[in-house]
Every structure is written in structure tokens, then in C-alpha cells.
Design goal:
The chain is mostly loops. It has a domain at about 25-65. The protein has two helices and two strands. It binds zinc ion (ZN).
């Protein structure tokens, strides 16, 4: 019976062909200029593109390791609000 024999037709893939892409996880493509940047380069430039100054999303774990902001955000001065007595329900 011929149906037991698989015929060698269809798409043939060459598995030995080397992939032209760079290994995943070592580099990130810049969304600003399209340049492939290594993670180490991004790390040195605090996750900004050295070519176009594009700001990347910083991974949370990396962000926690970064030094704090050079100029701390000033807290909005709190105004002491006088709460009128009438606002709270009083039981007479
Ligand atoms: Zn860029």
C-alpha cells in the first residue's frame, strides 16, 4: 500500500542555515533611529539611545538599581485645611 509511505514533497527547510539575526536578549532595537544597541551600551547610557537620545522603557528590576533622581521632586506644600464642624454630622 502506498499510503503508508510518506512522499517527500512540500516545503523543505534547511535547518543548518545560520540565522542572520543577533542572539536575542543581548541587544535592543532603538524605536527612535532603528539602531541595534547592546544591553551594556544601554545600561551605560541609562537606557537612552546614544544616537538619537530615545528613552527606552527601563525594566523594573534595573530601575530599582538605578541611583535616585538628581533633583528630587519637590513635594507640594500641604495647606492646612480647616474642616468645618458642620461637615461632620452631629448628633444633638
Ligand atoms: Zn536611537
Amino acid at each position: 500500500m502506498s499510503w503508508l509511505k510518506r512522499e517527500r514533497t512540500g516545503i523543505k527547510t534547511d535547518r543548518k542555515a545560520p540565522r542572520p539575526e543577533l542572539p536575542e536578549g543581548l541587544w535592543t532595537k532603538c524605536e527612535g533611529c532603528g539602531e541595534a544597541l547592546y544591553q551594556t551600551v544601554l545600561d551605560q547610557h541609562l537606557w537612552t539611545c546614544p544616537n538619537c537620545n530615545y528613552h527606552f522603557r527601563v525594566p523594573a528590576r534595573t530601575y530599582l538599581g538605578l541611583p535616585p533622581e538628581p533633583h528630587p521632586v519637590e513635594a507640594v506644600p500641604t495647606v492646612a485645611r480647616e474642616t468645618p464642624e458642620s461637615s461632620s454630622p452631629k448628633i444633638a
